Amino acid sequence: MYTADTFEVAKNKPTKQSSNAHPFYRHSQKAVNGEYSESMSLSIEFCSETSDESEPSWWAVDLGAIYDISNVVIFGRNDCCDERLSNFSIEVIRPCRNNSNWFEDSVIEVCYFQQAPTTILNAPCRKRIFGQYVRIRLSNPNYLALCEVEVHGTFIGFLHTVGFPYACGFRGHSYDGHNETLSSAIVYSDIHCTYICSYMKECHVADFNKKTSVCTLMKKKTGSNVVTNSDHNVFLVY
């Protein structure tokens, strides 16, 4: 939904898509260039488009910072093939760390799911969602053409200066390797364990033993890894 304190934050931001339908035009950037023509037949400069892939196509934008996303507005083609823009998810992705791979080590939440074909959609997020990347992803293999995408939200902060704690969780895993323990204690839950870590200086790892309720807080160390352990839940705090 539009509110007084939200802004359109996607225009001219970096973009990616799963493939390019054409080598020289209709690239991903065309969906955030401020050109609202919905007819690809009028010009090769209008709209982004993927190829028809064996896997579901996707398009994504990097907002450059963490935003509280309120809604996403999509302008699809109105000259052809509106059935292609159907059965898709709008995802908000919050990275755990600075990473050239946009979707690695990230929390991915669905803002909105659209099943019926559409040419123009104003999609409000179903709940409050924070993230840096917004991805539109088809559920089934097909072409994905987007003529313009608006992302509306409120600026929270850059990844390295975000003022609220957030964590990436790995349920059924623990943290193993060259660890340096800061403290340990019995706590109520893995959420409680993560909360304590988020406000402790130098704490990066909250490892919760589900059998004993022991919370172990650790520094981040090179050579340590997240490993499978059904008795534990581990959260990496940023």
Automatic annotation (TrEMBL):
GO MF entries: fucose binding; metal ion binding
Domain Fucolectin tachylectin-4 pentraxin-1 as annotated: residue spans: 6-157
A Pfam family the protein falls into: F5_F8_type_C_2
UniProt feature coiled coil, ranges: none
UniProt cross-references to SMART domains, sorted A to Z: FTP (SM00607)
Record's keyword terms, sorted: Calcium, Disulfide bond, Lectin, Metal-binding
Biological processes annotated in GO: regulation of cellular defense response; regulation of complement activation, lectin pathway
Signal peptide: none
Role noted for this protein: Acts as a defensive agent. Recognizes blood group fucosylated oligosaccharides including A, B, H and Lewis B-type antigens. Does not recognize Lewis A antigen and has low affinity for monovalent haptens.
Subunit structure: Homotrimer.
Family: Belongs to the fucolectin family.
Protein name according to UniProt: Fucolectin tachylectin-4 pentraxin-1 domain-containing protein
Source organism (scientific name): Mytilus coruscus (Sea mussel)
